[in-house]
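User: Can you help me understand a structure? I only have the sequence.
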Amino acid sequence: MFDNLADSEALTYSRQLRDASDFYLSLQRELPDSVFAQSLDFAQAVMSSKEIVTDGLLTRSRVLRELDSHDARPLLDSLADLRSTLSVLYRSGNRGDSIAQTTLAHTISEIEQLQRKLAELSSTYVQGKDASQVSLGDVSAALPDSATLIEYYKYTHTNKLDQRSARYAAVIISRSGLVANVDLGPAEPIDAAARTWIDDFAAPQMLNKERTSRLSAKLQALIWDCVAKYFEMSKLILISPDGALSGVAFQALKGDDNRFLIEHSAIHYLSSARDVLHWSNGSVTETSPLLLTFADPDFSHTRASTTLAALPGTRIEIEQVAQSWKTVFSGSVQSFFGKDAISEAFTKNAPRAHMIYIASHGDCGALDSLQDQELSLTQQSLLLAGDVGTGDDGVVTAAEISQLDLANTNLVVLSACETASGIQIEGEGTLNLRRAFQFAGAHAVLSTLWSVDDSSTADLMSSLFARRDLTLPAALRKATVMRIEALRMQNDELGDHPYRWAGMCSSGSLRM
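Assistant: Let's start by predicting it. Here is the structure, written out as tokens:
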């Protein structure tokens, strides 16, 4: 559909596709409620519309990685160089200067030209069905027997009077097919409740258990209670959020018995329902699989916009995880700490790792507009140690990560601030570090919705890798429930407050 478009142009095109799809969804929603609830056409339209461009760009990235062509490699190398240049230009501090603005615009233009060339090259080799033609049957057949999937979708509804308003809908799917379509109602109160809930976690020192419970109950009434009856027997709940819901930790909502959802079922996140078709069915089978870790970087030479606090507690976190990896997976470990935890060591060693674990600071960026998509990918970054001698600035941007070849990496753990946060694009998900690793080919990612506590993360992660026979969401659930139970035994004010355990979420493939 966009074989000659740059990434930003493809996202613009997706908005045009969504406008047409929204009108069709509106017609379906005007059907009687009982007919709408079982409308295969509505479900299929949502599945065909949501993240269609993201799915296409993921396919493009995979094809280019696999493409053995003298044409592709020079273009990819040039794209990587330009993105590094853009990162340096953006962080130079001279963005207000007219010459700097011109240089930034020229660099972005060059990036887009290269993306168009790569788009044309990759389209020649793309085989199989167009992502927009993936059927509901394809998705349901790929689901585990014990799983139920909920696809949230925000769209512009047009009624019979030609009045338009944003609404949310949910499509619920199981192994047997469509379970139900659910109209969640106007988007404004849902978005407001979600943002208020998310903002409540922004200042840990101000957390209040009673206030958080009240905000959770309000949000739950809007987005969960009306769909909860469809998940009563599910051991695994797959959630594909949209809009402001992308920042919600669903595992922290509660069931009828006042227990957290994670205590009932494993929770796993998808970008869209089509993700299940790209799952890797394998797990770690190699002899001595490699765990690559970075922790407690020396930030004294890291080029960042703020002073970065040291993270000595992350060494303990890594040591516990490394011990579990050696014991349970019979794996080898390569760790980088302090001045050795430089970004060059990451980009050099990441492609040969089966699991990557980064305990550091992250930067989710500040842009809230699509007009500078490349700049948003430059803002979002992992912050490691810098090296003056080599010119290593310690900053690994989302754009740079997306061009790595991580096709052999089963799992990436991002124990850093807000690595699941970013710029939300309705219908196309969130531009963030998690997505960058998925574009690079990583099968599964553990990422964070807020700044996680070092000590609690260490306990959670060491429990996570205690067994190799569990799927990723099942292992995360088991470790999380253990953490919740331990917190309830502590007689303090916050107790089992979700901030202490719900920030880490799993996405991508089910296998570790």
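Now, to help you interpret it: The longest helix spans residues 98-123. The chain has a mean pLDDT of 86. Let me know which part you'd like to focus on.
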